[in-house]
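Pasting as-is:
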Amino acid sequence: MTMVLDRSAETAIASLLQIGGRGGDPHATARRLSDVYPTLRALSQASVSDLCQIEGMTKKKAEQLLAAFTIGIRYVEEPKSEMPTIRSPQDAYELLRNELRLLNQEHFVCLYLNTKNQLIARKTLFVGGLNSSIVHPRDVFREALKLSAACFIAVHNHPSGDATPSREDIEVSERLVEAGNIVGIACLDHVIIGEDHYVSMKQRGYMNG
């Protein structure tokens, strides 16, 4: 589809022309550009010398404008990285194990997912000893709502290297499930990472609420 230089495009161009520019009315210059180059494609294919023929355009402004087009084109052509899909505790473990397994403090991370279980964002929410007073559902679900996440997987490490769940781990898991049932954003699992293995609280039967 050919993009016409409408009012919003003119305004954007005027803003670019205003950066580092002196004198002249950038909005008037943008209108003159649209008279000569009625589409974004035509404008992007103009040379610096062509643009300098327009009243109000300088060599510096022309270079700035064409540089903006170059950045935009590269952004569109840049390969889109696939969002990883997290469908199992193994997937969560593989994603985070190298980062978490050798840390000397507990780190509590949430993997926020969309409806296709694709990773939207990963957030380290807490650092330190894990207990229900520190890991509060309010903070976990505040991020989930901000990201419009459909669900999430909680992950944390045991610096001792032993991924055996503690009483605090069980309590935190239960509270996240309960809160998720209320908010409508499911906590799919709580994965504990040890030095060379992991434990899924879901698979252990602690998250069946």
